[in-house]
Amino acid sequence: MKAVVCHKGSLEVREVEVPEPGPGHVLIKVLRAGICGSDLHARVHGDVVADIGEKVGYDHFMRPSQAVVMGHEFVGEVVSYGPKCRKRWRPGTAVVAMPIIRHDGEVEMVGLSERAPGAYSEYLLVQEDLTMPVPEGLDADLAALTEPLAVAHHAVRRSDVGRRDVAVVVGCGPIGLAVVLMLKAAGVKTVIASDLSDLRRGLARQCGADVVVDPAVDSPWDAVPAQEKHFTRAGDLFSVAFDAMHALQAVPGVPWWALMNVADKLSLTPRGPVVFECVGVPGMIDDLVTHAPFRSRVVVVGVCMQPDVFQPAMASNKEVDLRFVFGYDPAEFRNTLHLIARGKVRPQPLLTGTVGLGGTASAFEALGSAQSHAKVLIDPSSDVVEV
């Protein structure tokens, strides 16, 4: 079969053997594969990520010296089964799968390890237990977005954002746009999206963002609706405390501290927005800690590959929460697939191009800029080589 092999940073179409399904494996014919920002990073920062992987107990993350078939976002058709499978679906059934697989008792990351070739290929092995049928009528292009949207779904759930909270999405690349989609699907009424790119700001609007900001011109913090007052100065926050104590102590027959406890439980005490960092470059966390309103919750979705610094004292003084997210669980993956199928999430704006295997290298180059594309899919049956 044909597959795109990454070796020392270059991407080349090669002839390789069709993989043989082992115990618990399903061989699928790839219909579409998505190019992820993680793939762009892994291509050039493989050793950095591999070193981190080793520190958290995964020793097989791809390195530049290896020849790796990438691709962990995909949809395909069932072809055949290996031993010890339930054989739950007929050949030809469209399926998606979580991109992890077990070989010889060890778990491998599909498309990010030399030991688990990915979906930039005509055929792919997946784990039957982690495979899910595509609901009838769902287009392959949209089904291929299950994995990146599941990442956003997990981030939104981990954020504990409420419908009445203001959500600020910083960075509107594919993952930021996916977060916007999932925030609106969760019923969050006010979503502010910030990005330097005209293209991506337009896509954020199409994905449902209520306010779109060019941070080179305006601050996303100034875009918060007036009725959702957030505090950016310590003096203003203290003034609210003084005024509240004055008012609460004037209420007859009820201890002021009881009223304050009730207000806190009802989320009526001052708080900042829920911020989603979807850029993943050095300096972003420090910028958000420094400039976000007091008591903001910052959810770090973007993956920064370089060492970074921020001022802990600033975060402490402003009571800024920092949460880091990674991946999703099987239920979130399945729920995402069905949110797409039901039309609760409409990710069509993310799709800006499709190429064949021979166009993978050009797609990587195009995705290095924020000016022309968001999500590019690979169709192994296509002869298109430019996006």
Give the termini distance in whole angstroms: 23 Å
Low-confidence regions: none
Number of strands: 17
Largest sheet: 7 strands, mixed
Rg on CA atoms, Å:
23 Å
Helix/strand class? alpha/beta
Number of helices: 11
Assign an overall shape: elongated
**What is the H/E order?**
EEEHEEEEEEHHEHEHEHHEHEHEHEHE
* Helix-residue proportion: 25-40%
Please state roughly what percent of the residues sit in beta strands, choosing from under 5%, 5-15%, 15-25%, 25-35%, 35-45% or over 45%: 15-25%
Mean pLDDT value: 93
Explain how this protein is built:
By secondary structure, this protein is an alpha/beta fold. The protein has helices spanning 37-55, 140-143, 146-159, 174-185, 198-206, 234-248, 256-265, 284-291, 312-318, 330-341, 360-367, and strands at residues 2-7, 10-15, 25-34, 73-81, 94-97, 100-103, 106-109, 123-127, 131-133, 166-170, 190-194, 211-213, 274-277, 297-300, 321-324, 351-355, 375-378. Strands 3, 4, 5, 8, 9, 16 and 17 form a seven-stranded mixed β-sheet that branches. It has a six-stranded parallel β-sheet with strand order 12-11-10-13-14-15, sandwiched between helices. Strands 1-2 form a two-stranded antiparallel sheet. Helix 3 (146-159) crosses helix 4 (174-185) and helix 3 (146-159) packs across helix 10. It starts with a strand and ends in a 9-residue tail after the last strand. The mean pLDDT is 93.
